[in-house]
């Protein structure tokens, strides 16, 4: 497994509230991106806490779960509970939350866990496929036919999310399972990337550069404005691993 990841503060923010993790073993690889939100430094706290809780849960419980779908769901729920409980510790942390999108790669399967509007894509010679559905106000408008996908890209409320880690004691977690074959790539990113690059542009760059596209994608997002933190993870499947 080849994995590259990077998080960047962007051009406008004073603080990077994104967080990225990577965990590898002989049996699996885990990657995740989180985009925190909240006053003061609460977003930074939420994204880091959720990411590390997810990582630790998978590390400590991987062999206890035959069904890795349930492993990812329970790991995401644990991350949610940790952030929620931490938000009660101090006034400045009240109401903090974070997106969290992860991918557990085990042999020929990829298990995607998702809450919020950070995204996961599957990229291969056949094209690019968006694996996650944004939990956002604008996505709801698209689903009910009020606006088109093109209109959604420039909607004034496109960053308003409807589901996040840590806001409530319980959260609904989306889990998606896909085949993960030789030379397939999984890309995870926060909306600091997708606000500036289309799905087609991401495909062209990643199809050419593979996992080495991480820095180029971030550079382009910054060149086009960089109004948000930007995080990208790309994992490529090796032959038989």
From TrEMBL:
It holds the Pfam family PP2C_2. CDD domains: PP2Cc. InterPro entries: PP2C, PPM-type-like_dom_sf, PPM-type_phosphatase-like_dom. PROSITE patterns: PPM_2 (PS51746). This is Protein serine/threonine phosphatase PrpC,regulation of stationary phase. Residues 2-237 form the PPM-type phosphatase domain. It comes from Caloramator australicus RC3. One of its GO terms (molecular function) is protein serine/threonine phosphatase activity. Gene3D superfamilies: PPM-type phosphatase domain.
